[in-house]
Amino acid sequence: MDIRPYEIAIPAAEVTDLTERLARTRWPADLTSGWERGTPVPYAQHLAQRWGTGFDWRAQERRLNRMPQFVADVDGQPIHGLHLRSSQEGATPLLLCHGYPASFVEFATLAPALAEPEDGGPAFHVVAPSIPGFGFSTPLTGHGWDLVRTGAAFDAVMVALGYERYTVFGGDVGAGISEQLCLDAGDRVIASLVATDPGAIATAYTPPTDHLTPEEKERHEALKAARAEDFGYLQVQTTRPLSVAYGLTDSPVMQLTWIAEKFQEWTDPSRELPEDAVDVDDLLTLVSVAWFGRGGDGGANLLYEAAHSPMAWGRTHDRPQGMVAFGEEPLMRRILDPDGRLAFWAEHPRGGHFPAMERPRELAGDIRAFLASVPVG
Fold first, then answer.
1. Number of domains making up the chain
2. What is residue 81's predicted lDDT score, i.e. its pLDDT?
3. What's this model's pTM, rounded to 2 decimal places?
4. CA–CA separation, 105 vs 209, rounded Å?
5. What is the CATH number of the domain that holds 70?
6. Cβ atoms within 10 Å, residue 14
7. Of the candidates 323, 322, 321, 326, which has an alpha carbon nearest to the alpha carbon of residue 354?
8. What's the confidence (pLDDT) of residue 204?
9. Active site residues
């Protein structure tokens, strides 16, 4: 495999182009002050102004470049990611799989904390690639990059980096990749931990709920009803990804608001705004990488591929699995682990869909606790 070191170096012309595009934005009419129709215009203008005039991309570029990176060629597709080898002897290899609509940037705080823990606890050799079409795993060079193919590519990258056996963590789409690796990579996967939040039990893919009490079923239906209007992004991208890709690739404000809306809807509900749930510069760094990497169409295409690929129903594996839940919702374990069969379960009342950005300290503790509970040899 062609795998080589990588350093982010966005040309000055592209940074200038972003600033100029933001300044020339044509804004829609401001007809609402709430989020029920999407990102409110005043808040979008606030974020765009911060991105264009108050955000230091070069500082963030330097911060990201302090972490060793690689780019690999897998079946003609560039796959970029972080690769932090711990200085600790006996560190466990760990693959981090991000979700939608993120990238390797999701783990920019978590990865160093796992590779070189300040308390001297268990450490990891951390690999955090971006899914093909996300981050700098661009451009997307062809169709067919579903979860199965992505999992196989990540497994090949781990082996090429020298890790014959490794653990895996994932959230959202990354959780699906983690499960796929357990099915297809076999004994190379030591164990798998996934993160979840209340949104995971309010989708069409919720596990069976026949065991719930009438009161719990009523609560579950209320959760699904509350999210019913949240799936417009999914319906568009799983049917006509190219239609939305034009806007995400050409308009920085569309890319900005497309991601900011999900941080508003999916992060800790006790936080009023996205920048209350995660650091605003971290959010803008994630958006910037999506913009500079032209990842809008890649994200849309992944959801299309996932929706049009066969599911692995009926397949099983014996890899130890754990789950960590962020957000206060008693039904999560009742639905996702009703019989207590998972090797590990942890819950946190705060946090949401992006725990590596929202609650990195708690998530790092869970990863370490989980791996301490399963045999590594």
1. 1
2. 98
3. 0.96
4. 35
5. 3.40.50.1820
6. 12
7. 326
8. 67
9. 172, 304, 353
